[in-house]
Amino acid sequence: xSITRRDFLKIAAVTGGVAAASTxxxxxxxxxxxxxxxxxxxxxxxxxxxxxxxxxxxxxxxxKVVKLDGNPLHPNSRGKLCARGxxxxxxxxxxxxxxxxxINTGSRGEAKFKKASWDEALGYVADRMQKIKxxxxxxxxxxxxxxxxxxxxxxxxxxxxxxxxxxxxxxxxRGARGVAFELTxxxxxxxxERLDLQNSxxxxxxGSHLGENAHNSQCQEFAEAVGKxxxxxxxxxxxxxxxxxxxxxxxxxxTTDLAILLAWINIIINEGLYDKDYVAKYTTxxxxxxxxxxxxxxxxxxKETEIPAGRIVETARVLGKNKPNVLIHPGRxxxxxxxxxxxxxxxxxxxAILGAYGxxxxxxxxxxxxxxxxxxxxxxxxxxxxxxxxxxxxPFAGEEGVTHAIVKATLTEDPYPIKAWFITGTxxxxxxxxxxxxxxxxxxLDLLVAVxxxxxxxxxLADVVLPECTYLERHDDFFTVKERSFGISFRQPVVQxxxxxxxxxxIAKELGKRLGLExxxxxxxxxxxxxxxxxxxxxxxxxxxxxxxxxxxxxAKPYLSQGEDYKFKTPSGKIELYSNELKxxxxxxIPKYTKHEQPSEGxxxxxxxxxxxxxxxxxxxxxxxxxxxxxxxxxINAKVAKRMGLxxxxxxxxxxxDGVKSNKVRAKVTERIRPDCIxxxxxxxxxxxxxxxxxLRGADDxxxxxxxxxxxxxxxxxxxxxxVKITKEV
Length: 730
Ligand SMILES: Nc1nc2c(c(=O)[nH]1)N[C@H]1C(S)=C(S)[C@@H](COP(=O)(O)OP(=O)(O)OC[C@H]3O[C@@H](n4cnc5c(=O)[nH]c(N)nc54)[C@H](O)[C@@H]3O)O[C@H]1N2
Ligand SMILES: Nc1nc2c(c(=O)[nH]1)N[C@H]1C(S)=C(S)[C@@H](COP(=O)(O)OP(=O)(O)OC[C@H]3O[C@@H](n4cnc5c(=O)[nH]c(N)nc54)[C@H](O)[C@@H]3O)O[C@H]1N2
Ligand code: SF4
Ligand SMILES: [Mo]
Known about the structure:
This protein has about 725 residues and is an alpha/beta fold. It is about 30% helix and about 15% strand.
C-alpha cells in the first residue's frame, strides 16, 4: 500500500519524537493493565536494492523493520517501491548474511574461513597493504567497486597513493551511452536518466525492457505515457513486457540496431520530417550527416535487421509526426557489441534532429543548482608515482575506470603488477565476463579483500572478508538527485547494525588509521560529517532526517524556451551531429554501420536481461524475492523447441563456443523470442555454498560469456557475442 502525501506529513511529524508514554494509545493500553505496546516509528531513508535510490519510509516496531514503503516526497519513488525495494527486509533478516570478519586459512579462494575480530582482520589487511606498497608501490593496490561503499574505498585508495579503481557501471553498463551523449550534447543523460516519459507522444525502446528493468519512477512514467495514448515502438529480439504495451514490436536481428537507426535518420531527413528550426539553431554537422546516411535505405536496412522496409518507413513517420515530443530511450545497460558508442551516437543524432533534447516528452535539461563539493577531508591525495592503468588505452574511458583494464594488468603485469584487489559492493564473478581470466588474475594477487554484506561468489575468493551492515543499518553520504528539480536524498540507520557488522565509512576509516592515514578521516562518526556538510550547504539537517528528501523546486528548468539561445557544453557550444572529437582520435565522426558475426546453424546467440523481482546476482538469495523467483529459465523459440523435441519445463544444459557448460536450467518454450536467440535473466546460479537458497539455482549467463568484444572508443564491453548450443543431457 502506498501512502499519500498527507499521510506522510503526519508520519514525518511522528518520526522526530516517537512513542512518548503520554500518547492516548499507550495510555489506554496501560489503563487496561496490559503490557505496553510501543507505537511504530516511521524512519525515512534511501533504498540501495538497486541504484535508482528511491526514497523509503521504514516502519519499525519494537526495533524490528516490519514494512518498507515509498517516500511520496521523493521523485524517484513517488510513494511506491518496486518488489525489490520491499524486499529490503529480506536482506536485513537473511540468516545467510556475513556476521563477523573472516580470514581464509586455506589456499587462495578455498574459503576455509575462520572468524576474526575487527582488530585482527583490519591489522592483517593493513600489514599486507604496507608490504605490497614497499615492494611494488601503492599503485599495485587495485579496487573493483560499486554502490555507495565506493565513496569510502576510493577515498582510502587514493589517500594510500593508488589511482587504480574501476566500477562495472562504466564498461559493463552505461559507459558507452555517457560517452556518446557527452560527445553529442556535451553531457550524459543522467542517473536517473532525465527522460520526460510522462509527456512523450512516441517512445522508442531499443532493448530497454521497462517493466523487467524495474527502475521505479521510469516505470511509473512509462505506464502514465501508455495510459495517455503514447505510441510505443519496441526494438527487441524478444517480446518483452514493454513490447506488450507497444503498437510496434520490431523483433530485430541482434547486432543490427544501428542499421535501423541510420535508416530512420535517412528517412526523416529525406522526407523533411526533422525539426528544421531546431537543427539550424542548435546543431552542427547536419549536411555531413544528410550525405552520410543516404546509403542507409529502408530496403538495405530490411536485409540487415529482418524488419520489413515498410515498417521501418511507417515507424520513422510516427517519430516525425510526433516531434519534438518523442523519446528515443537512450538505454542504460549499453554494453552489447563492439560498436556501442556509435550505436548510442545514432540514438543521440536521431534525438537531436527530432528536436527532442530540452523539449517536453524528450530529454529534459539538467536542473540549475550548484553546491560546492564537500569532501571527506580537505587533505590532498599524494601524487601517484606511476601512471594509472584503470582506463586502459581507451581515449574516451570514463572517470569510473574500466574493469577489464584492472584484470588485464593483473594478468600481464604490464605496465606494472597489480598485487592486491579490494572488491567492495561488486560480485566480480557475476558482473565481469570471462570468469577464467578473473580466477587466473585472483591467483596472481598477494591480497584479496572483500567488503560485502553477503557471501556471494566473489566474496568466497577473498583472503579477508569485512562484513558491511546493510543500507537499513547505516548512514551514507548524501545523494544529490537531478530530477526535474534538484534535491538531496538522505540515508540514515533505521535499526542498529545486526551481528558484528559495520558501515563502510567505519571500515575505511579504521583501515586508514592502521595505515597512518587518519588525517583523511577527520570526523568521529559519519553523522558528524553529514551535519557539517549540511551546514556548509545551508540545509536543515533535522528536516532532512524527518523528510528523507529535500527539494529545490526553483532549480527546475526542464525545457528550452521558444527561440532561446542555449550553449551546449560541447567544444562548439552546439549539438555535434558530426564529431570532430571522434575524428581527431581516428574514429568515424558519423556512425557507420558495421556487420557482426552471426550464429551458424544449430547455434544461438546468448542474450540476457533483468527480472522485475531481482537485481543482478545480489538478490538471488533474498528470502522474500527468492520466493517470487527461485531460479531463471532459458527462453527458447517454440519452433526450435519442437524441432529439438523439447517441452516447456524440460531441463536443458547450454554449451558455449568454447565448450563451457551451464548448470541445468528449465526451458521456457515461447513464441516470444526470435529463433536465433536464447535469453537468460542475468545473475543466477551462485557457486557459494554459504547461500542456502541461491546455490546452483538456475543458469549463469556470465559463465557462458567467455568471449567479449571491446568498443575501441570507450572500452565498453560487448557481452552479447557468445553463441550457445542446447543439450538435453543433465
Ligand atoms: N553477463 C552479464 N553481466 C553483467 C550484466 C548483465 O546483465 N549480464 N549487467 C551489468 C550491469 S548493467 C551492471 S550495473 C553490473 C552490476 O554488477 P554488480 O553491482 O557487481 O552486481 P551484483 O551481481 O548484484 O553484485 C553486487 C555485490 O555487492 C554486494 N552488495 C550489495 N549491496 C551492498 C552494500 O550496500 N554494501 C556492500 N559492501 N556490498 C553490497 C552484494 O552482496 C553482491 O555481492 O553487472 C554488469 N554485468
Ligand atoms: N529488476 C531490475 N531492474 C533493473 C536492474 C536489475 O538488476 N533488476 N538493473 C538496472 C541496471 S544497473 C541497468 S543497467 C538496467 C538494464 O536494463 P535495460 O537498459 O533496460 O536493458 P538491457 O539490459 O540493455 O537490455 C535487455 C533487453 O535487450 C534485449 N536485447 C538483447 N540483444 C538485443 C539487441 O541486439 N538489440 C535489441 N534491440 N535488443 C536486444 C533483451 O531481449 C532484453 O529485453 O536495468 C536496471 N533495472
Ligand atoms: S527501483 Fe526498486 S530496488 Fe531500485 S531503488 Fe527503487 S525501490 Fe529500490
Ligand atoms: Mo547497470
